[in-house]
Amino acid sequence: MSRYTCHYSVNLQSSNLRSSLRKLMEVCGLETIYDLDDYLMAREIPGRVSFAKLVTTEVLIDTTHATPTHVKLSFVVKNEELPLKSNNHCRQIFDLLRSTIDRDFDWQPLNAGQSTATLLASKSQSDRFNKADLHAKTTPRQTMMN
């Protein structure tokens, strides 16, 4: 699974955040499928690339640490493709997203240049997610066999 992340600080007074996020997704060729108070999910439109390469983008809006003027946005761009090449399809969409933000939006990057590919931040998180994935994958099969 390819997975890339980036974080931005957004000035809340500069524009309407929701419409800006929707416009960003549209410019990047993604359709918004969920739009909640603190979360937005968009996906690539099927038909252009193989199923495993279809990219999903999640935007986490950190309202817990928001100030009256700024809020933190965390972008997670991912797909099921194994990142065997450094310039894979998921990375291309991630780079398009970042370049569009840099060009069209006045958002300040946090931890500039830092992105995460494929691996999760800590082993304990990785173990927790792997156990959950293993349970989710094996439970239906076991149920069907019984």
Overall description:
By secondary structure, the chain is of the alpha+beta class. It folds into 2 domains: 114 residues, Kinase associated domain 1, KA1 (TATA-Binding Protein), CATH 3.30.310; 26 residues. It has 3 helices and 6 strands, in the order βαββββαβα. A 6-stranded antiparallel sheet has the order 2-3-4-5-1-6. It is globular.
The gist of it:
The chain is of the alpha+beta class. It has helices at residues 17-27, 89-104, 123-145, and strands spanning 2-11, 30-36, 39-44, 56-62, 70-79, 108-110.
Number of helices, where a helix is a run of at least 4 consecutive DSSP H or I residues = 3
Number of domains: 2
Give the strand line-up of the largest sheet.
Answer: 2-3-4-5-1-6
Which H/E pattern describes the elements?
A: EHEEEEHEH
Rounded Rg: 17 Å
* Total strand segments: 6
Distance between the termini: 31 Å
Task: Write the CATH fold name of the largest domain.
Answer: TATA-Binding Protein
Largest sheet: 6 strands, antiparallel
Topology, please?
Layout lengths: L1 E10 L5 H11 L2 E7 L2 E6 L11 E7 L7 E10 L9 H16 L3 E3 L12 H23 L1
Antiparallel strand pairs: 1-5, 1-6, 2-3, 3-4, 4-5
Defining traits:
146 residues; alpha+beta; TATA-Binding Protein; 2 domains; 6-stranded antiparallel sheet; 3 helices; 6 strands; disordered C terminus
